[in-house]
Predict the 3D structure of the following.
Amino acid sequence: MSEEDLKFTPLRDAHVAAGARMVPFAGYSMPVQYKDGVLKEHLWTRESAGLFDVSHMGQARLRGVSPLSAFEEVTPSDFIGLKPGKQRYSVLLNRDGGIIDDLMAARPDDDGLFVVVNGACKDNDFKVIDAELAGQVTIERLEDRALLALQGPKAAEALAEHAPAAAAMAFMDSAAMTAFGVDVLISRSGYTGEDGYEISIPAAAAERVWATLLADERVRPIGLGARDSLRLEAGLPLYGHDVDETVSPIEADLAFAVSKKRREARDFPGAARIARELESGPTRKRVGLKVLQGAPAREGAEIADETGAVVGRVTSGGFSPSLGCPIAMGFVPPALAAVGTSLKVIVRGKAQPCEVTSMPFVAHRYVRKVKA
């Protein structure tokens, strides 16, 4: 896209003032890194607290007589059983069981279902939801709200100074509250593998809230580059790379998103395919790879078995700042998906040894139970 075609988040001027390098992403001008660079930003998030602008994501309210049950018609998760104050990860499915997008849906209050979808997919996502659930739900796209992610081991104490109630939240809790003098929607979640929060705020307050959080010496601004390396270390898929409309939740190692109740009912899009893959296994599986020698294997690199036969391809890959070695994710046949399996990645025409490893590459540090 040309510069003229790009959209801007409410924090664009703040990013430029902070010396960010701006790049096109999901149709927006977004900061890929600041002055410290990706490596330092990544490690800072692991040891302290990083602040991310994720306002390009799609935020919406789904309202209706029964938005929770209606949402089950386009996802394989148990939303009827979603309790107030909770959030759930799920996937929007096409009729062949492929993933249209992955998303978060929450009940921070009594105002329907609060949904956050990927920025590059949001227009199509809401179009699909509207078409499939016409007459059951109305969709209010929250274009007047920004979204921040505060991530890292010191995120909770940094946010508690402005939103004391957030400290009592555990992983995947969601709540509406007043903080920074405005109404906010907060979930204890994120896409880095670290403890942290996602904070939905009125766009008009975005620059002030951003500056307030960055005034804390524990918090630094972090760009898309480190966000990507953090989510890779966390073993989390990126839509459009590791998952797309041809990939099922079972192939993507996201079977947890298909609830037990829904598996038994088989009442969601693509249920026949997904049930078959659950019973007999998929034909391919997303795995983690540790590159033992050579350069990082990037997206698109071929994966070969020990004989040199190509058996799959890398969908995400790069250097792991935390581990000090190249890591990757990709799809291989189930027979080659066991941890410890020796494989090769083809980088610039050269076969490099790698092995299947468990994910996450770096242990998640979600706070699942808050100490009294």
